[in-house]
Design brief:
- The structure holds two protein chains of two kinds.
- Chain A has one domain.
- Chain A is built from seven helices and seven strands.
- In chain A, a hairpin with a 2-residue loop joins strand 3 and strand 4.
- Chain B is an alpha+beta fold.
- Chain B is 43% helix and 19% strand.
- Chain B contains 15 helices and eleven strands.
- In chain B, the strands form two sheets. Chain B has a nine-stranded mixed β-sheet with strand order 1-9-10-11-8-7-2-3-4, with helices on both faces. A two-stranded antiparallel ribbon of chain B has the order 5-6.
- In chain B, helix 5 runs parallel beside helix 6.
- The longest helix of chain B has 22 residues.
- Chain B starts with a helix and ends with a helix.
- In chain B, 36% of the residues are buried.
- Classes of the chains: A alpha+beta, B alpha+beta.
- The interface between A and B is medium-sized, with 13 and 14 residues.
Chain lengths: 197, 398
Amino acid sequence: MSKTTNNKIAEVIEASTAQFTAQCYELYEMPPLGALVKTGDIFGVVANEETTGMEPGRKPIARGKDAATEEAVYKDSPQLKKLLRSTFTAAVVGYCKDGKIHQYLPPQPAKIHAFVYLCQPEEVDEFSKSFSWLNILINSAISVPTEEVIAASLRQMSRVREDSHSFMVAAGKEIANILASNIARVKNILEKIRHDG
Amino acid sequence: MSLDLTAVAAQVINMISGLKGKRAEQAQHLQNALTTLSDTAIDLEDLKKKIKAAKTTWLVAEIYEGLNQRYPLPPLPPDFTVIAADGSHIDVDRHQNTHCYLINIGSVVLTYGSQPDAALASDPHLYADDKDLVLTHPTNGREQAVEGNILGAKRSVEECKALVALAASLPPQNPILALLDGTLILWGLEAFPDFVTDALLINGMLKCLDAMKKLNKDRRLALASYISYPRTTDVLNVLRVAVCPNDIPDCDKQCPPAHGRDCAGLNGVRDRDIFMDLLEDGERSALFISPSKIVKEYYGDHKVYFFYLRVGDEIARVEIPQWAAENKDLLNLTHTLIYDQCQRGQGYPVALSEAHEQAVVTGGDRENFRELVESTLTGEHLASVTSGKSLSKRTRWV
């Protein structure tokens, strides 16, 4: 599969104020869960991913009974790469206006067919200087458990922070503040952050 | 009101019991056919002459290789490409004042081997010009509307055109099989005047077949059409001639309707029944030549040959032009690649099923198309006139 340039990884196919769904240009070349992505001026955290048949009425069937490897299944049926698609849904966590990042919902949703980019380390670094986005994510209606997405996102962000330990401690305090009335959820998230190698 | 299934159920039960009653007779007829097919006493040259002289009320295949030959599956080349085109259309709606039709061509390129790849495309085209809506006789001005069967034939031509364009666009290294769904024979044109045949067959389909043949100069390109579960009896009718006791069979004279026929012992058998018994999985039958009048008159060196192919529990009919049939290499390529396509496609060539998926125009698509035309008319402040009948079907009331 050819790599797309400029980190352009996908294109918006559904958009609302709080979420957008994008189709990846290459099958299975999805950003990791929790990754920070950007479309136009809007930032999103990858909150769910799926690979399905391109058409709703055509379901994939098992093909590999006689194939030696999984790669052979795709080699023997080259059309599969055109009939399947990988998509992801990102929870909107902020936007950029006049060069300044705002961690609240944008005035307008993303545009259909807008390109989606994986944020560069410096953008992630800049974005993760504030934790207001955590509140948006905790209250967002995403299909994957919110705790999983928050933990995945913090693990991703901590990798580009110079002092990842301090970053995680600060994030943990912020989560404890937001979820003060639900200690079980706080523990759940902290548990998942701590286990990151 | 919806269909009264309770009323239909009793009729279905009667139909099924009627079929059951005929099973023993059908089995005997099939046995008769198989015995005749392998009858060593039949002299093929004599039979060919008898077929040529016969005046039958049914079409009899020409014998090319014999009757009961079986050809094993040739080896699969390491790298190859299969291309296919299929179409669907929205016919002229005579209940609307906008006269137009739409043909949607789906096409597929599947490359197998060391560098597997796929390209799938659909290409809709709207026809609304006068020259597209009617075929006109060049001298007397007689007109034939392009709708119904004529539109079906035009669609076949467009499918073939798309296939030629695909074939020409491919690099010449890989052997290529170009596949069409259904028959290569434009049967539907037999009932129409010559200027229609000129437009759609001579200047349409046959030009495409010429182009395909020419492309073979720098590549191995086979062309075939695939008929799943065929109902044809061209080979069975060869056996009818073989068992006919008259030296020169003449059905109408010798066996008028009330008269018993010696070939009645073969009634109800289809070619697929014969070859289902004869062929093992992957084997093809002998080649035969289509006896169709339109083929004899117009097809020239694209004369349609056919063979039957056993694909699992099904017999398929594969039609190929003469130049592909008489070239052993292209014939073997067709045989092995079609079988391989069926293996990959759960019993039906995967390239054809994907081309169909690209081409298909659903009921919803038709409705959306109609709405698009109407809303565009309204947008341009033009009246969208609909017949009362059409309106009554779309807006149902009590």
